[in-house]
Design a protein that fits this description.
With 189 residues, the chain is mostly helical. 71% of the residues lie in helices and 0% in strands. The protein has nine helices and no strands. Helix 5 (95-108) crosses helix 6 (113-129) and helix 6 (113-129) packs across helix 8 (151-179). The radius of gyration is 17 Å and the shape is globular.
Length: 189
């Protein structure tokens, strides 16, 4: 008989570094829309980190390192926290949103707050609605009956948000191309 799922609490958040990371420094404990709150935390924390590291090639190298380490640590933290909560893909685990939105903001920078807001809205749509490739990615690592929570669930938690970010980036790139004279002009120019 499997054990009942645990609730995400402040006590659990503070009990292990993996929980602190996976819960997005507590943003995932929001009783309403934890994924949206986690993405907002990702936005604010991106701006804070960007303020410290600046812009340019040196900053890009730092962001590449942050994102690479963040992916690896995120897979571990999401797996560990999913096991602790006894839920394969808990809503309170929001590191995937934080990481994916950092990736988006880094790739579209420099952009003003309106561009960042549009990125936020587009990402949240793909992450929440899970159309097409995002739905496929979300189902790819789901538990099979009798299977226990393992590394694949942590990878799956991260992977569908990566796909959501890539889909959102594609839509934003197409919107920019159309605005600048059409898709063919954007692709050929």
């Amino acid at each position: 008989m499997s054990e009942a799922p645990r609730r995400a609490t402040v006590g659990l958040l503070l009990s292990h570094p993996a929980h602190f990371i996976a819960f997005g420094a507590g943003s995932g404990l929001s009783p309403k829309a934890p994924g949206t709150v986690g993405t907002l935390w990702g936005w604010v924390s991106f701006l804070a980190i960007q303020h410290v590291v600046g812009t340019g090639l040196h900053a890009d190298l730092i962001w590449a390192a942050i994102l690479t380490i963040g992916w690896l640590v995120g897979c571990w933290a999401c797996t560990h926290t999913a096991r602790s909560l006894r839920v394969a893909d808990p809503g309170s685990v929001v590191w995937d949103e934080v990481w994916a939105f950092w990736l988006m903001l880094w790739l579209i920078s420099p952009v003003d707050w309106r561009g960042q807001l549009l990125a936020f809205i587009t990402f949240r749509f793909f992450d929440a609605a899970k159309p097409g490739p995002v739905g496929w990615a979300d189902q790819l690592f789901k538990l099979k009956p009798g299977q226990s929570i393992g590394w694949a669930q942590g990878l799956g938690i991260m992977f569908d948000d990566l796909v959501a970010a890539l889909c959102a980036l594609l839509v934003l790139a197409l919107a920019v191309a159309v605005r600048q004279g059409g898709v063919s002009a954007g692709l050929m120019g």
